[in-house]
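Note to self: keep these together.
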Amino acid sequence: MEYLMKQYLLTLGIKNIVEISDEFLGEFYEWLLEYKEISKEYINFLDYLDFDYKEKNTVEVGKGKFDSIVIPYKTNIITKDKKIKGVEEDRIINGSLKICYNEPMLINKNEVKRLREILPNVNTYMTQNFFGNDIANWSDIHNSLTGNIILGVYGNVNDKDREDKIKMLQTLKLCLINNDFKEEYTRWNNNYYYVIGSSEKRLFKK
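Structure:
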């Protein structure tokens, strides 16, 4: 919830808040409901672009019970949440993901493991509405043919952080060394959606 609250503040152009009042919590709750509805449209956007992300070969990174978009599917989830309603236990991988020399690594407390030792069949990594450090070196996954990536940002067109979020994706795009990826931006009902993802049917290195 703290992660989402930080996102909410950035949409307002606020970096820090001193006092959390009942009024603030009410406005945050309303934003959270709106965010969930926009997320549903983002899912439709991914489907329209024929991204494959609903099976066990995909892992969603850094999301949880309040902001995951893959709860109804078979997708694995790397999260800090111990349990997520509607998600089987074997789909939940506790920890965070870091990319080290093209290798996705799972970090959980003081333990570091190669993700492929835990999820050997995963070849697609996805996340959305991230902070800058969350996607550090994700281009290495794509460039090294370690796997596919799907990275997206979305929200209301009036969000104060819209340009910053779009710029983060465009900066990552500059790091992709080939053209085997898809990129799409659209606006719908006063909301925006922007995604960059690897093209399907690439041959991965083992």
